[in-house]
């Protein structure tokens, strides 16, 4: 098979069904591997580089739920999409499979076109996965266990194509998962850095794929007059701070400063703008096909920062409205807006000018921009899980009666920008 042929594992104990699924998928151009039971399927998934798993529920030796649970708990396979194919299609079983991380549920018996439609849709789904969601500094501990304590790192994924957004401490578990899932093959990784404050780059020295010969890493980020991006990355690995230098990383690493507002990073089209945050900071709009994601952390609204910009001074108000309107236009009609929502209005009273957004402003921007979803991101290190619960509830209240969906960024969770598929 060609190197770019998508590989699907079918876990099914019924010979006739397994052969039918394999035949339908192979005729559609996929490479198909099969396993007659759950245990064999799970073990095969650990050895092979796969793009998709199609699994029955009532599989011998290991139930389909356990297969799904283990796949999602194992670093090498946690990103692997799974379609559950089963005659055990009670609504409760469908919900459970989706809640456990299945990308779709297809009920038996099925028609071949229905199977192909679900497979195609799952493989084409754009997924956004959160590896680190905390702003400023990592905050591990029991108070942050539900939402996560790692600093910013997000992936945008479609099939084998992956783009990394920021290199906070969440980059370390991402790197472990990527290398574990590589199956010995070289990785070609694309990464965007919004800015070089520590919480956005401090995971880079611990990024396992950067140490593996044969891997290629392409990093894009904002330029700086004082220290180019490569020098900043190299600087945090100075022997004064870290025992390994950037030069000791064995991968082929290319660092490119973003000079043009539009560029390509692998399969993704990227639009970059500068945003209002101390230092040189960018936001990115990532587009793949007809789906887009805006990643805008960290930024502070001009209307809050500039004196008199809330109507007291007409000149300041007009200027702030125009500048804030640029971000609204940037977010316009996006499928997902990942937004700096670090402060409460009360926090902001003492942190004005620190370069972050009050969460009510996030809802306002998303509504004005007609965004489909907004993910509350860059959680304040002083906010525990209960505080984030309150932030989420308040934002959802502000969005009541609109089409806007407000969701929290949760470490380890993925958002599918094509809705879950259930075919009867």
Report on this model:
This protein is an alpha/beta fold. It has 2 domains: about 5-125, 3-Layer(aba) Sandwich (Rossmann fold), CATH 3.40.50; about 125-415, Ribonuclease Z/Hydroxyacylglutathione hydrolase-like (Metallo-beta-lactamase, Chain A), CATH 3.60.15.10. It has 12 helices and 20 strands. The strands form 3 sheets. The protein has a 7-stranded mixed β-sheet. Helix 9 (about 315-330) crosses helix 11 (about 360-370). The longest helix is centred in the last third of the chain and has 18 residues, at about 315-330. The protein is globular and about 75 Å long. The two termini are about 30 Å apart.
Key traits:
2 domains; disordered C terminus; alpha/beta; Metallo-beta-lactamase, Chain A; 424 residues; 24% strand; Rossmann fold; single chain
